[in-house]
Automatic annotation (TrEMBL):
The chain crosses the membrane at residues 49-69, 89-111, 405-431, 451-471. The keyword Transmembrane applies. InterPro entries: Nucleotide-diphossugar_trans (IPR029044). This is Glycosyltransferase. It is found in: Cell membrane. One of its GO terms (molecular function) is glycosyltransferase activity.
Amino acid sequence: MKSETITSEQFYASTLSESHNEELIVKSSIFNFQNKSKNNNNDKTSSPLGIAVLIISFVLMLTGAFFVYEFQSDFDQFHIDRINSTWGYPFLILTILLFFFQTGVFLYNVYLYFRYKPIESVTDDLLPTCTVIVPAYNEGKLVWDTLLSLAESDFPEHKMQLLAIDDGSKDDTWYWMQQAKIKLGDRLTIFQQPENKGKRHALYRGFELGTGEIFVTVDSDSIVKKDTLRNLVSPFVVNEKCGAVAGNVQVLNNKKAILPKMLNVSFVMSFEFVRSAESMLGAVLCTPGAAAAYRKTAVFGCLPEWINQTFMGQPSDIGEDRAMTNMILKQGHHVLFQKNAVVLTSVPEEYTGLYKMFIRWGRSNVRENLMMAQYVFKNFRNESKFGARLLFINQSLKQIMTFPLLLFMLFLIVTHPLLFLSSTFLAILIVSSFPVMFYAKRYNFSEAFWAYSYSIFYTFGLFWIAPYAIVTANKRGWLTRGLSEIK
C-alpha cells in the first residue's frame, strides 16, 4: 500500500492538530475518571433518568423481599408439593448439588483473586519487539483516536510496529487512517482490504505482515492508557510459558447512556475479578478483541487452523478472539490477565445493539466450548490441568442447565407468578451485592449500584440470549455491524 504524502493533506492535518490534541486531552480525562476517581463531582448517576432507574431497582428488590416474607407459608407449601411430585425431588437434589458446586467455585475464585497480582512492567531494554494490529470496519473518526492513543504509548518507538487495516469500510474510516498516517508518518503503516472479508481476515493480514516478537490486537473503537502496551507484553518476558495475555477492558462511552453505565460495572466484575482468578490458573478463556497480546510463535502454531476454522461446515466469521485463545491453550501455553493493562472501549447504547453483541458472544462460547472438550481432558500441557478443566466444567454446566432452568422458570411464571417475581428480586438483591461491593471498593460507591439494575435488566430482558445462542450456534454474521449504537 502506498504511503500518503500529499502536501495539501499534510497542511490540512496540521491545521487540525490543535483540535485533535484537545480531543485526546478529553479522552485522557476519561481515563482519570475511571481510575478510582471516587471524589469526582461529575457523578454519572446524577441524571434524572439514572436516578429514576436506580430508585425503581431498589423498590423492586425491596418489594420482592417483603413479599417473600409475606408469602413464606406459600413458599413452604410449594417446596412440599415439589418434593412430593415425581420430578420435584430429583430436581431439588440437582439444584442443591449445583448450588454447592457454584458456591465452591465462587469461593475458590475469591481465594484466587486475593492471590492475584499483575506483572509489573519490565524495563525498556527487556521489552520485546511488538506489532500492534488495529482492524477497522466503519469506525469513522474513532480509528483516529485509537491510533493516536497507541502512538502516545510509553513504549520504545524502535520496538513497536503499528499496523492499521481497513476491512473494506463504507464510511470515512479509510480517510481517518490516512490522516493518522500523515500525522504519525513512518510510525504507522496502513492497509485497505479490497472488500469486506471480516475481522478475522483483517487480523490475519496483520499477523502475516507483523515483524514483532509479540502481536497486540486492539479494536478500532478503543483507547489505551499510556502504560497499557508495556504492561500487556511484560508477562511474555517474565513467563516463558505465556502464550497470550488479556487486557483489562472498561467502558469508554458511559457518560450518558444507561446501558453503558450498567455494562461498566459488569465489565469490571468480569475482568478484574473473574479473569484475575482465571489468570492464577493460567487459563484465561478469552483474550478480548479490545486489547490482547499473543506470542508470535503461538499464533503461527495455530494460524492455518484459525483462519480456516469452520463450524458445522460453515466458515467461522465470529469469535476470532475466543478461538485464538482456545487454540493457544490447546498448545499448552499459559493465558494470563493483566489488570494494569487498561483499555476503554465503546459498547452498545441501545437494546438492539446490546442483545446482538451478546448473541454473537454466546454463539462463540458454545462453539469454543465444544472445541475445548476435544483436548481439555487430554495431556495438553505439562503443568497442572486442574484449573482449565474446572473452568471448562463450570462453563459446560451453565450451558447444559440453560434449558432445564428456563423451563422451570416458565413453569413458575405460569403457576406461581408472585412467588417467582418476589423470590427473583430478592435473589438479585442478595447475589448482586457482591459485585456492588467489589466495584465500590475498586472504584466508585454510587456507580456500584448499577450492578443491581443490570442484574434486573439481564434477568428480565436478556434471559433468552443463552438458549437462543445455543440453538442458533451454527448461524453466521457479526450482527452489530452497521448499527449506529456501537459507535
